[in-house]
Amino acid sequence: MAKIIDGKAISAQIRAEISEDVIAFEREHGFAPSLTVIIVGEDPASQVYVRNKEKACIQVGIRSDIIRLPAETEEAQLLSVIEKLNNDPDVNGILVQLPLPKHINEKNVICKIDPKKDVDAFGYENTGRIMAGDYDFLPCTPAGVMELLHRSGIDVCGKDCVVIGRSNIVGKPMAMLLMHDNGTVTVCHSKTADLASHTRRADILVSSVGKPDFITADMIKEGAVIIDVGINRLENGKLTGDVDFEGCFEKASAVTPVPGGVGPMTVTMLLKNTLTAAKKQN
Ligand code: NAP
């Protein structure tokens, strides 16, 4: 029977640590770290994510500002807002909520953010630095997964790690971080032949696909650690991950639930990155 990796509890513990650090930072510098989030348009899911980020900032004492721009905003206007924030010493972290409206080039926007303020670590300078293993910021979701593993006493060194998904924001950096931790990493995707032959070898399996019940018990190894990054909204409104939790629970040694696993860690790592940005800039 698996141990449940409680992302909520681990996240609360890290937020308490960040809170103490923020107090110490404020005592030393006379101001708290600050994060500015830009949201373009009215996407309901994005609105919820942005509100959650704001709440989390307030919880740990980070100053939070939200800039709301209409969906018709031109790319040039958005870039000029970012330019102003880049030059504002009062702003330590900048995040542009994705996805952006179709007429705006996402790459131009994320690469416009000053790498020292790029707390999502999606810009190409920070991406390259992760590749080189010389970084200040890590993308929040893969960083959150590594914290879950470390704080649950799961050693990656020498383990067969299989990551399903190769997006720039989850799969690729996830694979890199597991490799930095001396895991032997396989990355699978939609063109992978015989996916189960890979997943059955995994000591640590990370699924970031976005399909409910995608990972079933017959696809995992006895005693595997299963990290479920997927977030799927079912027709009945319930949130679920990629993993058939009930089925895999008996066979795995540890598993993250959805909700309450990786999700809470993502915002927590954003808080950590904002604090790091403020420290580096001061
Ligand atoms: P994405 O860009 O859509 O990537 C999905 C990946 O899954 C792609 O690499 C795709 O392969 C692969 N895939 C799709 N079907 C597959 C199949 N049948 N077999 C093997 N691989 C398959 O999504 P993402 O942004 O990485 O996010 C992935 C999931 O994580 C989503 O559910 C998202 O909501 C969730 N997420 C959660 C958090 C969190 O905080 N917990 C944060 C971010 C994302 P190809 O590259 O070949 O298309």
Describe this structure in words.
- It contains ten helices and eleven strands.
- The radius of gyration is 19 Å and the shape is globular.
- By secondary structure, the chain is of the alpha/beta class.
- Strands 1-11-8-7-5-6 form a six-stranded parallel beta sheet. Strands 3-2-4 form a three-stranded parallel beta sheet, with helices on both faces. A two-stranded antiparallel sheet has the order 9-10.
- Strand 5, helix 7 and strand 6 form a beta-alpha-beta unit.
- 44% of the residues are buried.
- The model has no long low-confidence stretch (mean pLDDT 97).
- It folds into two domains: 86 residues, Leucine Dehydrogenase, chain A, domain 1 (Rossmann fold), CATH 3.40.50.10860; 124 residues, NAD(P)-binding Rossmann-like Domain (Rossmann fold, 3-Layer(aba) Sandwich), CATH 3.40.50.
- The longest helix has 23 residues.
- The protein binds NADP nicotinamide-adenine-dinucleotide phosphate.
- The site of NADP nicotinamide-adenine-dinucleotide phosphate has 24 residues, from helix 10.
